[in-house]
Amino acid sequence: MKKTIIKDQTFLAQPSSPANKSDSQQITDLVDTLQANSDRAVGLAANMIGVNKRIIAFKMGIMNIPMVNPKITKKSGRYQTSEGCLSLPGERETTRYKKITVDYQDSNFKHHTQEFTDFVAQIIQHEIDHCNGILI
Questions:
Q1: Which of 83, 91, 93, 127 is flagged as catalytic?
Q2: Alpha-carbon distance 18 to 35, whole Å?
Q3: How many other β-carbons are positioned within 10 Å of the β-carbon of residue 18?
Protein backbone atom coordinates (compact mmCIF):
# COMPACT_ATOMS: atom_id res chain seq x y z
CA MET A 1 0.00 0.00 0.00
CA LYS A 2 1.31 3.44 -0.94
CA LYS A 3 2.45 5.49 2.07
CA THR A 4 3.11 9.21 2.61
CA ILE A 5 6.74 10.40 2.35
CA ILE A 6 8.06 11.57 5.75
CA LYS A 7 9.90 14.92 5.83
CA ASP A 8 10.56 15.12 9.60
CA GLN A 9 14.35 15.42 9.80
CA THR A 10 14.44 14.50 13.51
CA PHE A 11 12.76 11.15 12.74
CA LEU A 12 14.88 10.59 9.61
CA ALA A 13 18.11 11.22 11.57
CA GLN A 14 17.48 8.19 13.84
CA PRO A 15 19.40 5.04 12.87
CA SER A 16 17.06 2.23 11.83
CA SER A 17 16.65 -1.10 13.63
CA PRO A 18 17.27 -4.43 11.90
CA ALA A 19 14.25 -5.78 10.03
CA ASN A 20 12.86 -9.28 10.55
CA LYS A 21 10.17 -11.52 9.08
CA SER A 22 7.42 -9.63 10.92
CA ASP A 23 8.28 -6.61 8.70
CA SER A 24 7.12 -8.27 5.45
CA GLN A 25 4.20 -5.85 5.02
CA GLN A 26 6.57 -2.86 5.36
CA ILE A 27 8.71 -4.29 2.53
CA THR A 28 5.62 -4.49 0.31
CA ASP A 29 4.52 -0.97 1.32
CA LEU A 30 7.97 0.43 0.54
CA VAL A 31 8.06 -1.13 -2.94
CA ASP A 32 4.47 0.05 -3.59
CA THR A 33 5.37 3.59 -2.48
CA LEU A 34 8.45 3.62 -4.73
CA GLN A 35 6.30 2.50 -7.67
CA ALA A 36 3.71 5.20 -6.90
CA ASN A 37 6.51 7.82 -6.90
CA SER A 38 8.38 6.43 -9.91
CA ASP A 39 8.05 9.74 -11.75
CA ARG A 40 10.22 11.46 -9.11
CA ALA A 41 12.11 8.78 -7.13
CA VAL A 42 14.61 6.01 -7.89
CA GLY A 43 14.96 4.76 -4.32
CA LEU A 44 13.37 4.87 -0.88
CA ALA A 45 14.30 3.78 2.63
CA ALA A 46 11.68 2.52 5.09
CA ASN A 47 12.14 5.49 7.43
CA MET A 48 10.93 7.69 4.56
CA ILE A 49 7.50 6.04 4.99
CA GLY A 50 7.60 6.18 8.79
CA VAL A 51 9.04 2.70 9.46
CA ASN A 52 12.33 2.82 11.37
CA LYS A 53 13.68 -0.49 9.95
CA ARG A 54 16.70 -1.32 7.77
CA ILE A 55 14.76 -1.81 4.52
CA ILE A 56 15.40 -0.06 1.21
CA ALA A 57 13.95 -0.30 -2.29
CA PHE A 58 15.46 0.98 -5.52
CA LYS A 59 14.88 0.97 -9.25
CA MET A 60 17.11 -1.22 -11.37
CA GLY A 61 15.91 -1.00 -14.96
CA ILE A 62 12.16 -1.62 -14.84
CA MET A 63 12.36 -3.55 -11.55
CA ASN A 64 11.81 -2.21 -8.02
CA ILE A 65 14.23 -4.20 -5.84
CA PRO A 66 13.84 -4.44 -2.05
CA MET A 67 16.85 -5.03 0.22
CA VAL A 68 16.50 -6.00 3.86
CA ASN A 69 19.28 -5.21 6.34
CA PRO A 70 21.71 -4.04 3.61
CA LYS A 71 25.34 -3.46 4.54
CA ILE A 72 28.10 -2.19 2.26
CA THR A 73 31.15 -4.45 2.71
CA LYS A 74 33.43 -3.05 -0.04
CA LYS A 75 33.60 0.23 -1.91
CA SER A 76 35.92 1.76 -4.49
CA GLY A 77 36.09 4.64 -6.95
CA ARG A 78 35.29 7.60 -4.69
CA TYR A 79 33.69 10.63 -6.41
CA GLN A 80 31.70 13.77 -5.61
CA THR A 81 28.14 14.23 -6.85
CA SER A 82 24.97 16.20 -6.17
CA GLU A 83 21.78 14.41 -5.06
CA GLY A 84 18.19 15.21 -4.32
CA CYS A 85 15.87 13.45 -1.87
CA LEU A 86 12.08 13.23 -1.62
CA SER A 87 12.35 13.99 2.11
CA LEU A 88 14.46 17.15 1.66
CA PRO A 89 14.17 20.22 -0.58
CA GLY A 90 16.82 20.91 -3.22
CA GLU A 91 20.08 19.08 -3.90
CA ARG A 92 23.22 18.62 -1.84
CA GLU A 93 26.83 17.64 -2.53
CA THR A 94 27.91 14.23 -1.27
CA THR A 95 30.65 11.61 -1.66
CA ARG A 96 29.78 8.30 -3.30
CA TYR A 97 31.63 5.25 -4.64
CA LYS A 98 31.46 3.91 -8.21
CA LYS A 99 31.54 0.24 -7.16
CA ILE A 100 30.12 -1.31 -3.98
CA THR A 101 29.53 -4.81 -2.62
CA VAL A 102 26.41 -5.24 -0.49
CA ASP A 103 25.39 -8.01 1.92
CA TYR A 104 21.61 -8.08 2.26
CA GLN A 105 18.51 -10.22 2.53
CA ASP A 106 15.77 -10.32 -0.10
CA SER A 107 12.06 -10.03 0.69
CA ASN A 108 12.04 -13.75 1.60
CA PHE A 109 14.95 -13.14 4.02
CA LYS A 110 17.38 -15.16 1.91
CA HIS A 111 20.96 -13.87 2.21
CA HIS A 112 22.79 -12.40 -0.82
CA THR A 113 26.10 -10.69 -1.57
CA GLN A 114 26.11 -8.67 -4.77
CA GLU A 115 28.24 -6.05 -6.50
CA PHE A 116 26.67 -2.88 -7.90
CA THR A 117 28.17 -0.11 -10.01
CA ASP A 118 27.49 3.39 -11.27
CA PHE A 119 24.02 4.94 -10.75
CA VAL A 120 22.47 1.87 -9.08
CA ALA A 121 25.38 1.84 -6.59
CA GLN A 122 24.79 5.54 -5.94
CA ILE A 123 21.08 4.97 -5.21
CA ILE A 124 21.85 2.11 -2.81
CA GLN A 125 24.44 4.22 -0.96
CA HIS A 126 21.92 7.07 -0.56
CA GLU A 127 19.24 4.72 0.83
CA ILE A 128 21.65 2.91 3.19
CA ASP A 129 22.66 6.35 4.49
CA HIS A 130 18.96 6.83 5.36
CA CYS A 131 19.06 3.55 7.34
CA ASN A 132 22.04 4.94 9.25
CA GLY A 133 20.28 8.22 10.03
CA ILE A 134 22.47 10.16 7.56
CA LEU A 135 20.74 12.82 5.47
CA ILE A 136 22.56 14.31 2.50
A1: 127
A2: 23
A3: 12
pTM for this entry: 0.96
Is residue 67 classed exposed, middle or buried when 0-12, 13-18 and 19+ CB atoms within 10 A define those classes? buried
**Separation of alpha carbons 51 and 62, rounded Å:** 25
Cα separation, 35 vs 49, whole angstroms: 13
| CB contact at 8 A, 122 and 42 | no
Residue-wise pLDDT tens digits, 34-82: 999 999 999 999 999 999 999 999 999 999 999 999 999 999 999 999 9
Collapsing DSSP to helix, strand or coil, 11 comes out as helix
Q: Measured at the alpha carbon of residue 3, what is the angle toward residues 68 and 54, in degrees to the nearest 5?
A: 20
Known active-site residue 127: yes
